[in-house]
Write the structure tokens for this entry.
Amino acid sequence: MRSQRTKLSNSEMCKHLILLLAGGSLLAASFALAATTVPPAPVADALERAGVPETAIGIHVYNLSDDELVLDVAGDTLFNPASAMKLITTFAALDILGPAFTWKTDVLTDGPLFDGRLAGNLYFRGHGDPRLTLERFWLFLRELRNRGLRDISGNVYLDRSAFAVGAHDPAEFDGEPTRPYNVGADALLLNYKTVLLRFVPDEAARRITILSEPLLPSLSIVNNLAFGEGHCDFWPRTPTQSGNTLAFTGVFPSGCGEKSRHYSLLEPDEYFAAVFRLLWAELGGTLSGSVEAGTVPRDATPFATLESASLGEVVRETNKFSNNVMARHLFLTLGSEHDYPLTTNKARAVLNEWLTSRGFDFSGLEVDNGSGLSRTSRLTPRQLGQLLIEAWRSPLMPELVASLPLVAVDGTMRRRLDESPVAGQAHVKTGYLEGVRAIAGYVNNLAGQTFSVVFFVNHDRSRYAGRALDALLEWAHGTATESSALLRNAR
């Protein structure tokens, strides 16, 4: 009997020892969580190596499973969020317009159609379709042919009056006017007014061929590329522009294989005209007149309508690939509750009304064009964190989360953290400008918890801070969660 009591006593002693050790861990965890304004050690170390001071960062981490704040570093300081601003634009669009919302592109006529011939003019009127691609436009023109239209005796007029955004200078932001991300909002934007150039090396002939899609006669490509040996550390993808001519020079390494890149060069009307004439002729149609800007007269007759992809699909592409043009269109479309034409001021008014109705305090918020491609946009980590928390609790959560890049899997996060435990465990929107790095999204952990994470870096050396941003994701996936789990179990 005495030996049995001794066994029980020893067992109890072991339990007390375990509890004592656990208590020490809990105390350490409590102390770690109490210091909510200090960056985690891995993040601080990475920032130091990057030469970025902690005064240049803002962090907000929230445990959505436990409904508690985990980390807040300069949470109420205004930062430039770069493309993380798209989270506000896309969630507002989902909530205000609905994921099933679509844009329409109308075709109208002002004359009779007889035996395939239109005795009058044809009108294209856009309402801001953000994804009127070359393929969809070709299918739309096929529909016009199937409806009996073959020959247009008058002109083709392009009505862009649904947007009133003023003149856009694609070189203003960073001096790169041919880059597609610098294309401005346009109510009748066709294929982002870009051409896809494919660079095809021929080792036998030792030459580089440049293929253009679409092949537009108004665009000239000068190919002075030389075939070279070696790895693809660099290839000459930035051309010299002169008018409607792009000239490529330099050595194209054989190790690059085929490369492709989109370029935007022509003015919107010029691009639309060139593509329309090309595709219309391929479909067997004719046009006697010109293709030019115009407005639809009140007595015009509707002929056909093209409906866009759903807003939910557009949001996914906007966030996955950080599409600035789509974000601009989504932002302007917020103002569709008001009368046309849509303007930036109308969109801002609707956004502010929506934020207020949601109970947000977004004091100091500056929204330029809704895409984050801006030097003047401002937002605090806490504000974006609050939006992520609200989105997580919303019925629209699946649509928004699914639109964010999955770490190491797709979108702008496809090539990051592929060897890390956080790979496939976080949906994260990225942001990158000269002097700005940002991440914002959701991180899961092994315990089944979910964290919202926001991290802004505004500094001249922000380009070197990528490891610090990745370290925060890993920390949220691991260390922060372990501490929070211990605290939860202790309650």
Remarks:
- Residues 1-35, 483-491 have pLDDT under 50 and may be disordered.
- The radius of gyration is 28 Å.
- Residues 102 and 310 are 5 Å apart (CA to CA).
